[in-house]
Amino acid sequence: xxxxxxxxxxxxxxxxxxxxxxFCALVDFGLYWLLLQAGLWxxxxxxxxxxxxxxxxxxxxxRFTFADAADRGAAQAGxxxxxxxxxxxxxxxxxxxxxxxxxxxxxRVATAWVIAQGLATTINFVLLRTVVFRAGR
Length: 137
Hints:
The chain is mainly α. The protein has one domain (about 10-130). It is about 80% helix and about 0% strand. The protein contains 4 helices and no strands. Helix 1 packs antiparallel against helix 2 (about 40-65) and helix 3 runs antiparallel to helix 4. The radius of gyration is 16 Å and the shape is globular. The two termini are about 30 Å apart.
């Protein structure tokens, strides 16, 4: 019988990614909420908050989550930028779609944000681990 448990390295990275992600989500949602309270258009607020959360994520994931990855310099930063550009559009687009589809309620904005964030986070972990911050060969 084959052992299907994830490797300890994957579990460690997933735990660290979740901790970093939780902090970055607080940065993202906190800024999003503040910008909405300031009267900024909801899609601009989401875009700016995503950028702030993403910048925080790059530095924390590089130093904490995937510290054992091969340092590929500009290629690594470029790969991160491309990945997060794609997930930026996924995140903002999913948020806009959910705001359009969800009925009016006190939880509408938070629900849309959680769905958009969950989708982008899943994409990010898989591609950060396998492409951007892959372990040295």
